[in-house]
Amino acid sequence: MITPFDDAYFMRKAYQEAELAFEEGEIPIGAVIVVADRIIARAHNLTERLNDVTAHAEMQAITSAANFIGGKYLKDCTLYVTIEPCQMCGGALFWSQIGRIVYGARDEQRGCIALGTKLHPKTILNGGVMERECSELLQRFFKERRKTN
Ligand SMILES: [Zn+2]
To answer: Is 101 helix (H, G, I), strand (E, B) or coil?
Structure first.
């Protein structure tokens, strides 16, 4: 059975956020948070615009989703993010008690898996959805940035 609301569908939405970041000269990482097949938060990396190293897509999505829900815990939510969360975001996701995390591509250097960041024991972690596209967008960004610098 084909459901319109599967992981690929929501990762596509997160990817669109990453594309927005790309256009704005931000490192292209995007995220959405979903509850009961409904997107309640969309965000992309804004570290340049805000001059804030904590302005990762996931951090903003967490805040925005909690505002939407009117509570700080995201137990029934799924986060879709184009690149595996870093230690900071992994830590914030721990505190949010998020139900599930789905990432696109791994970050072998700074990702929470590589660095052994502890997620909440109830958080399910899945990955590899649109892996190639998510990773290519990031690589293209750095390639173009090297050209202009
Ligand atoms: Zn992060």
So the answer is: strand
Residue 132 Cα to ligand 1 middle (Å): 20
pLDDT at residue 29 in the model? 98
**Residue 6 — pLDDT band, cuts 50, 70, 90?**
very high
Instruction: State in Å: Cα 42 to ligand 1 middle.
Output: 15
Note the pLDDT tens digit of each residue in 76-129: 999 999 999 999 999 999 999 999 999 999 999 999 999 999 999 999 999 999
38 CA → ligand 1 middle, Å: 23
Say whether 136 is catalytic: no
Q: What is the biggest distance separating any 2 CA atoms in the chain, rounded to whole angstroms?
A: 49
Options 17, 23, 48, 58, the catalytic residue: 58
Residue 23 has pLDDT above 60, yes or no: yes
Q: Which tokens in the block code for residue 6?
A: 């599967």
